[in-house]
Amino acid sequence: MHHKTIAELSQDLHAKKISSVELTQHFLERIKRFDEKLNSFITITEDAALQAAKAADQKLAQGQGGPLAGIPIAHKDIFCTDGIKTTCGSRMLDNFIAPYDATVVTAMKKAGTVMVGKTNMDEFAMGSSNETSYYGTVKNPWNVDYVPGGSSGGSAAAVAAALVPGATGTDTGGSIRQPAGLCNISGLKPTYGRVSRYGMIAFASSLDQGGPLAKTAEDVAMLLNAMAGFDPKDSTSVDQPVPDYTATLNDSIKGIRIGLPKEYFSEGLNNDVAKVIETAVKEYEKLGAVIQEISLPNTALSVPVYYVIAPAECSSNLARYDGVRYGYRCKDPVDLEDLYKRSRSEGFGSEVKRRIMIGTYVLSAGYYDAYYLKAQKVRRLIRDDFTEAFKKVDVILSPTTPTPAFKIGEKTSDPISMYLSDLYTIAAPLAGLPGISIPAGFVNKLPVGMQLIGNLFGEAKLLNIAHRYQTVTDWHKHMPEAF
Amino acid sequence: MEWETVIGLEIHAQLSTKSKIFSGASTQFGAEPNTQACGIDLGLPGVLPVLNQEAVIMAIKFALGANAEVARKSVFARKNYFYPDLPKGYQISQYELPVVKKGYIDIQLDEGTTKRIHITRAHLEEDAGKSLHEDFHGLSGIDLNRAGTPLLEIVSEPDMRSAKEAVAYLKAIHTLVRYLEICDGNMQEGSFRCDANVSVRPKGESKFGTRTELKNINSFRFVERAINYEVERQINVIESGGKIVQETRLYDPNKNETRSMRSKEEANDYRYFPDPDLLPLVISDEIIEQVKKILPELPQQKLSRFMEQYHLSAYDASILISSKAMANYYESVVKESGDQPKVAANWVISELLGALNKAGLEIEESPISSAQLGKLVSRIADNTISGKIAKTIFEALWNREGEVDDIIEKRGLKQVTDRGAIEKLIDEIIAANPQQVADYRSGKDKLFGYFVGQAMKLSGGKVNPQQLNEILKKKLQA
Hints:
The complex is a heterodimer. By secondary structure, chain A is α/β, with parallel strands linked by helices. Chain A contains 15 helices and 11 strands. Chain A has one domain (1-483): Amidase signature (AS) domain (Amidase signature (AS) enzymes, Alpha-Beta Complex), CATH 3.90.1300. In chain A, helix 4 (103-110) links the parallel strand 2 (72-76) and strand 3 (114-119). The longest helix of chain A is centred in the C-terminal third of the chain and has 24 residues, at 369-392. Chain A is globular. Chain B is α+β, with helices and mostly antiparallel strands. Chain B folds into 3 domains: 3-267, no CATH class; 297-411, no CATH class; 419-477, Arc Repressor Mutant, subunit A (Orthogonal Bundle), CATH 1.10.10. Chain B has 16 helices and 15 strands. In chain B, the strands form 4 sheets. Chain B has an 8-stranded mixed sheet. Chain B has a 3-stranded antiparallel sheet with strand order 4-3-14, with no helix packed on it. In chain B, a hairpin with a 4-residue loop joins strand 12 (247-252) and strand 13 (257-263). The N and C termini of chain B lie far apart (67 Å). The model of chain B has no long low-confidence stretch (mean pLDDT 92). The A-B interface holds A 79-80, 86, 88, 93, 96, 98-100, 102, 197-202, 204-206, 232-236, 312-313, 315-316, 318-320, 322, 324-326, 336, 340, 360, 363-365, 368, 372 and B 39, 42-51, 78, 80, 82, 84, 87-90, 142, 269, 271-273, 276-279.
């Protein structure tokens, strides 16, 4: 039952082959049984889940409820959930019970989904390996000695191990696509402004975007249908109609132009990963796609630009965690400065502190022009690269990561090499573009993800192209044996 | 050496929107601490600001009232610093691109001349909360009711050359924002506050001296005193061989002095950068045109109209237009007075305002209504009473003793205008004062006043002064 997709489970629920309560209990039991090995959840909300499942069953019994009614899901612990602990993977918010629901959480409730818990993540979404969480490292279900990726590593691992059929995540520099790639699932980062950021704890406001993770592109489309939409509470959300992302999944992709950026297929790309992607490209040719090489000349600048802009915004976004109103407060502060210094030193982990320091530095008087302003200018160049590319192609294809998952602890002492592993996923958010990662094969029994980047608001097209691939391949059906 | 003072003001006007600038919480003053702060004002994780359009309309109104250009595109920026009453660790303000660009306002000086003060810019921002240091036994309390209240910060050019000019400018802006109904102007509650940048330089020098910024000057009186104190302090420092340090100084109204708060070296690095949570504020020509249509008559326009329509001096007109309520009161007095704008102006300015000031009342609280004062003026004009008697009636009106005509009737204050009665009265006076009459007729002209006084005394002040003069002159010459 847990190997079924959301689309299949939805049919079973509507056909009354199974109830939401049964389904929810099944996944809750799996979480209890397996999550000790994975550490993918921070909070499990059993009682609330069973209540929501009952309510969903009542609706389904009356022939009501949409396609997601009764489907168990998990929210990344970055989304505020009313009355439920919302930690953002940090000691700083270990005692924080959100007094409101994020817009995404409200939307998923309205769609009838059943939240079974909140998933583990890199602290404040800062990390590519889920090793920075205050709640401990999440393990990759394909090999528990390896990282699941990050920062939505808990969501990715939970879906990959079939502890839950779908989950929400957030992506700032690859935090949905990279763990989806490393865990052999499908994960989409929508266009900036497509999904409301209200109630999603901010890391880098101009980059953060929520999105779904699930086994297949079809499931991702179903979840995105519920998540996407304009929100008057988020000034950066875009007031544009939401299409039915499932309606165009089976459209022919004959003649579709796929671009392969030569900068993504160069030095640094693991040979075996390259071979996996080459095979995938051949599948697309068989489906009638037209493949061509393109150039994104400023690719090499995207990592440095990202590591100026994201820390700058984070240094300001995280200033509110000061021990005054909520969250962690140090013991017996002697004065205000002591309260600030110790609450923040003790409440934040080292990666978060590193980025706050970088961000504070690049915004400082005398450095602002050289770093922050310059980075914004280069960001525009990176966006222009994509604008040029999309004059020639409909979608851009690349590996999601240069290598498969790395070992836990392998890169923790070398943040630069960790940052560089995000090279292929980091440019899309800088340009505000949507991107999806889908399973494309294995190297040494570790999954390889393939990334598709679309034009602004091109989610439907991306999902269509991803889904067509999944109709002719079965990589997304491979499940880790231990679970 | 002769010194010249240079002053620029930064005025914070709290915009009278119903809700806060980035949240839906109420802006009402005086509520229980922390009852008017929602999740956004508290800076909870995950919350986002949404700009209150009412505040934008108010900023446009100000621009139009201050002869300033509305920026078609302005940008909100974060001003980063840590303070317990600043929930997010940054204040959302505008930095490089403010919503209101250069403008000016003309101020009336005592000599009856006009001076143009240029406005550099005005920008929208949110207010912080309040730290309460009393009543908490070694701890500080935080009240976030004020956090997120919209402010318009109005920055002037260093165009003022004396504390008096600074006060005149401050009053002109105060009048303007109340005319526009964008700020209640209440200085005690802090809805209208100002900081002053003050420097001195030798007269004739074109370069500015080093300035200090004066804080906590929240009444017109304090502004004048604080600046005057600071100017004197700076001159003393320079003349005794010292140098002015660029710093922020706090005004202490109890001691009437300014004290150093922090110097430029200790100043925060605010790390301004555009707020990624808010899109640039774009204002279309259509919106500006719409706001133009709802713009009320502005103080400057009213001033010109009063001078022309009512033949008032610039000085009198400037007093009468100092608030909308005052101007409305005056115009209503004129209407009731039977077209006596000048007499009406005199009564409003010297009698009514004098009495109100003494009693510490605002024009809105006047015990004498504009209809009553207008009626009083009309009774002087139609010779029912003399100006002198009118003052008695004014007092009675102030004490709420009734309507003008009833008071005249009840107290028998009607002016004597019957020629026969006045002649009879004068005859009696002449008969009773033979010596004075003789002296007057032999050339002591000054005694005329004595006879007038006698007539007023005997008639209880009711005799019509013009008639008295005329008849008395005739009879004494006979």
